Give the backbone structure.
Amino acid sequence: MTDKTPLWQAIADTLRAEITSGHYPPGDRLPSEATLATRFGVNRHTVRHALAQLADAGLVHARRGAGVFVTARPTDYALGRRVRFSQNLAAAGRTGSHRFTRLETRPCDAAEAQMLDLSPGDPVHVVEGLSLADGQPLALFRSVLPGWLAGFCDHARDQQSITAALAACGVADYTRASTRITAKLANATQAVALQIPQARRCCGPWRSTWTTKAGRSNTGGRGLRATGCRWCWRTRSRGSGGGAASPTGCPSR
């Protein structure tokens, strides 16, 4: 005698197949619990159990007061010396964009001064925001750049691009000097921005240091050194040679 498949498991399998087939694209809201209960002829508790399994698998996420949404699909993100966010996503067939949430100039702290070869208290430009793929949240980022890049925040605000803002400041090219990747649980504000459960593990902080040789910029002979952090959800990082650059358990990163 074979064991019967639990109702909630059968519902979860059906919804998983429909999500995989594209019936519910990334970012779409699933039908309400009441609608799904009517469809499958079960109570809402059974539906809730099925949705919880899909959430544990990273296929959906709940937003308080809004419903249950399909999670964005994983994106391969190659790490190389001249990797640019928009180019990386374009290579994966996706459209990248940024939404800046903070642009300000302030004195740097001791840790920032050490990373940027500055003195504590020297001015730095701070940029924070949300990176999106096809309009869906993919990562939070924070970049700190030396304050001698005159007008950087204004250029970034106008162009909505760090690379374009650097070019407007005379920095024609820059390269990645180093990258360090770790994983941590998203805090409340990060979870809201990334549209994931607070207890879900994300990749971050992913800290990169950028540099440019003095001969490659019009900055009075000074070489640029800047640093950035990125908190990512559902990316898979690869080194420029194709090898894995970070664990894939961040999750499915």
Notes: Residues 213-219, 240-253 have pLDDT under 50 and may be disordered.
